[in-house]
Amino acid sequence: MNQFATPTDEKNWAMFCHLSSFAGVIIPFGNVVGPLILWSMKKDYSELVDREGKKSINFQISMSIYIFVSAILVFVGIGILLLIGLALVNLIFVVMAIVKTLNGEDYEYPLSIKFLN
């Protein structure tokens, strides 16, 4: 770990790992790629960044799976409601993770499958 990392810098980089998931609004799969790039760049920077980056990646991969299944269910009719619900859940949970991380609190995403430990 970086011996020169200040607590504020650690919190900021951990927050950016969560915030970068909004790249999915602009770039296809940016919700996974954004946190993955930041995490891979800064995972050795601090334990906090490593932990929060993994949480963000796990949640965004989980959400991508849920969105894919919901997109298939569009043909049945319920998929559109699920997609809207998932978009809201994603927005709310990511904002909650950002706020908790900046406040120095631990936040575990609900509905998240642990791909990275």
TrEMBL record:
Subcellular location: Membrane
Keywords: Glycosyltransferase, Membrane, Transferase, Transmembrane, Transmembrane helix
Protein name, UniProt field: Orotate phosphoribosyltransferase
Ranges annotated as spanning the membrane: 12-38, 65-98
InterPro entries in UniProt: MamF_MmsF
Species per Swiss-Prot/TrEMBL record: Labilibaculum antarcticum
Main location: membrane
GO molecular function terms noted in the UniProt entry: glycosyltransferase activity
Membrane topology: Multi-pass membrane protein
Pfam families in UniProt: MamF_MmsF (PF09685)
